[in-house]
Amino acid sequence: MNLAYDQSPDTGPAVVCLPMFSMSRTATASAFSPALAGSGLREIHLDLPGHGDTPAHCPPTSQAVLDTVCAWLDHHLDTPALLAGGSYGAYLAAGIARQRPDLVRGLLLVCPGVTIARHSRNLPDQPPLDAPTGWLDAAPTALHAHLDAALGHRTPAVVATVLAALNSGGPGDATFQQELQSGPGYALPDEDADATFDGPVSVITGRQDHIVGYADQFRAMRHYPRGTYTVIDAAGHYLPYEQPTLLRALTQDWLRRTHI
């Protein structure tokens, strides 16, 4: 249950933020802290096993990662927490709400993975939005294809912000991450469970997200009787860095519904 983490000095209820795959708690803070600013919540940003500064001390499966996070929550928190996550972190947060709803007060799911197998994701079939010439010049060539698919707000400034997030925090364990992502245990065993979570939920997606899409997330809303769903134009998979003002507005709405 030893996870590297940072927390804010606030004394309010806890909001635990889980990172995107391969990213660190530093990147998660840069994504979510501006949206949570002024809330008085005690922000806690975790590095998952094999990510950032946390060693790979569990088997390379999503269930083992989820169990490790749940053990951390059991050990460090006395009351249910708000969970916020992006992409894989949101996939895990939704899984925790299914498996351990006693730990969860509400969910903020940004560009969440719904189905882990890439071939089964319902992705947008529209072409990417226009972008200025040379908008990807600052990015390493190896990242061009990924960023071209991932970004809806396609400007050099957004690329610079995303690159800074990708390069922030501890180094992680690349071997563990590769084994996790390519192994049979990448999907949670209850991914398709017909379970509901009754707490306040906000699901925020990008209209131009060609990594996880937005349609699967809308269909998943049947699991959230108190859920709000939003799809944002000119936003992709790195939505917190592409549309921070809209993310803050939607996060504040979610916080109002948590009655904190």
Automatic annotation (TrEMBL):
Name the InterPro entries on file: AB_hydrolase_1, AB_hydrolase_fold, AB_hydrolase_sf, Epox_hydrolase-like
Provide an example Pfam family for this protein.
Answer: Abhydrolase_6
Residue ranges of domain AB hydrolase-1 in the record: 34-247
This chain's protein is named Pimeloyl-ACP methyl ester carboxylesterase
Q: Which organism is it from?
A: Micromonospora ureilytica
Upper taxonomic lineage: Bacteria, Bacillati, Actinomycetota, Actinomycetes, Micromonosporales
